[in-house]
């Protein structure tokens, strides 16, 4: 009986190890490249469909706010963009940390591919916030705690990309960027909790995990759909960008030469 159990346990461990090895092979740029190419059309299509639906719900279905009127509808771009600006930074820092700790090439490439999209969403959040702030506060910009920390987030994205671009050797550039990304993570909770920690003009969150939403369900639905659209867009564009980075960094390998030769 014990021999049977030992054999079964050994087979189970062998299966787990085989599965682990199976998944680890996709950490190779060569294995990841074709899979990324197959996923891009799917996520791009999802992003377009959800984006159209989300904008329709936000601008045509959601009711007019009784205080801000139709000016509030900018939140269907502003809030999801602000969410994504913080989320992408955390994901970027995660991949950068994996690349720094385990010296994996693809992880560092993923971090580099995420940075431009995160910067775009941060800029979009700041820009739409200014459009919303003018009729609400009477000013395009105030040195509010959340606005200021979001602006710092934009500087962190730009700094990450500039630092990597200033170093010719890719591996050294990845390590330097990873250190900056990890240091900048401290800014994310500052952005999120700024309206609670300081007396700011920026309104608090309308979505709280501890209580029911304070907005109409159609408003919430519109924002969530747009957030999913931005999420799908981020995946699609990041996969496109990481494929370009792979081709650039692996251009001396035989498999990349074969791909480029077949497209010539």
Q: Keyphrases for this structure?
A:
globular; mainly alpha; 264 residues
Report a brief summary of the structure.
With 264 residues, the chain is mostly helical. It has helices at 2-24, 29-61, 75-102, 105-137, 145-166, 170-184, 187-197, 217-249, 254-263.
Written overview of the protein:
- The protein is an all-alpha fold and 264 residues long.
- It has one domain (40-200, 213-263).
- 79% of the residues lie in helices and 0% in strands.
- The chain contains 9 helices and no strands.
- The chain has helices at residues 2-24, 29-61, 75-102, 105-137, 145-166, 170-184, 187-197, 217-249, 254-263.
- Helix 2 (29-61) packs antiparallel against helix 8 (217-249), helix 3 (75-102) runs antiparallel to helix 4 (105-137) and helix 5 packs antiparallel against helix 6.
- The longest helix has 33 residues, at 29-61.
- The termini are far apart.
Give me the secondary-structure topology:
Elements: H1 2-24, H2 29-61, H3 75-102, H4 105-137, H5 145-166, H6 170-184, H7 187-197, H8 217-249, H9 254-263
Helix pairs in contact: 2-8, 3-4, 3-6, 3-8, 4-5, 4-6, 4-8, 5-6, 5-7
- How many structurally independent domains? 1
Quick one: overall form?
Answer: globular
User: If helices are DSSP runs of H or I spanning 4 or more residues, what is the number of helices?
Assistant: 9
Uncertain runs with pLDDT below 50, 5 residues or more? none
| Range of strand content | under 5%
Mean pLDDT: 85
- First-residue to last-residue Cα separation: 63 Å
**Helix-strand makeup class:** mainly alpha
Number of E-type strands: 0
Q: Considering DSSP H and I runs of 4 or more, what fraction of the residues is helical?
A: over 70%
Please state the oligomeric state of the protein chains shown.
single chain
Give the biggest sheet. Answer: none
């Amino acid at each position: 009986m014990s021999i049977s159990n030992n054999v079964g346990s050994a087979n189970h461990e062998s299966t787990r190890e085989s599965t682990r090895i199976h998944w680890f092979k996709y950490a190779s740029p060569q294995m990841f490249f074709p899979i990324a190419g197959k996923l891009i059309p799917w996520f791009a299509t999802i992003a377009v469909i959800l984006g159209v639906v989300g904008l329709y719900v936000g601008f045509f279905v959601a009711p007019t706010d009784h205080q801000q009127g139709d000016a509030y509808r900018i939140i269907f771009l502003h809030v999801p963009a602000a969410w994504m600006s913080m989320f992408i930074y955390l994901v970027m820092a995660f991949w950068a940390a994996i690349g720094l700790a385990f010296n994996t090439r693809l992880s560092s490439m993923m971090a580099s591919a995420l940075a431009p999209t995160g910067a775009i969403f941060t800029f979009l959040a700041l820009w739409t916030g200014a459009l919303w702030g003018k009729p609400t506060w009477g000013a395009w910009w105030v040195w509010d705690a959340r606005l200021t920390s979001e602006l710092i987030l934009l500087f962190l994205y730009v700094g990450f990309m500039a630092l990597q671009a200033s170093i010719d050797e890719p591996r050294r550039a990845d390590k330097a960027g990873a250190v900056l990304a990890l240091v900048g993570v401290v800014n994310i909770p500052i952005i999120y909790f700024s309206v609670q920690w300081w007396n700011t003009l920026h309104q608090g969150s309308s979505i709280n995990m501890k209580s029911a939403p304070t907005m109409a369900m159609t408003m919430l639905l519109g924002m969530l759909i747009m957030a999913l659209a931005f999420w799908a867009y981020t995946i699609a564009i990041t996969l496109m960008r990481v494929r370009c980075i792979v081709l650039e960094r692996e251009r001396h390998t035989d498999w990349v030469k074969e791909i480029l030769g077949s497209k010539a």
